[in-house]
Amino acid sequence: MLTDWKKQEELDFLNEVSCVPLQQGLRHLQTAFTNFFAGRTKYPNFKKKHQGGSAEFTKSAFKFKDKQIYLAKCTEPLPIRWSRQIPESCDPSTVTVRLHPSGRWHISIRFDDPTIKPLPPTDKAIGIDLGISSLVITSDG
């Protein structure tokens, strides 16, 4: 489907970017329609290509070297101002580049930390209600 779109003249702009964010966009669209047909959400809203938005890059579409991010089809690394220190054992798994309404670009990087162990499964559940007169009320009292 995506390959056929890239061959059409009116959709020539699709060839200017890596195919990975385009594939991610199609995956998000599939999830949106799956949720719609399952009755979990409303009909998906479509957005124009010139309204900014975001692009998601998986591991195959970027390189992380010396704390710099190189996106596919880009020769220069992204200028990044880090908000916190990154542990040495962490590797990035997803990079999301987003254009904010203010016109500024922001990047979000998801890191996988192998030192964090998953919690053991449990059959216990609790309900939490945030209120006005009482800040937090739990279902177990």
**Largest beta-sheet details:** 3 strands, antiparallel
Indicate the radius of gyration in whole angstroms: 20 Å
Residue-averaged pLDDT: 85
The total domain count is 1
How far is the first residue's CA from the last residue's CA?
A: 54 Å
How many strand segments? Answer: 7
Q: What is the N-to-C succession of helices and strands? A: HHEEEEEEE
Residues in helices, as a percent range: 10-25%
Shape: extended
User: Which strands sit side by side, in order, in the main sheet?
Assistant: 1-4-5
Q: Which range does the strand content fall in?
A: 25-35%
Structural class: alpha+beta
Number of helices: 2
Uncertain parts: none
Organism: Microcystis aeruginosa 11-30S32
Protein name: Transposase, partial
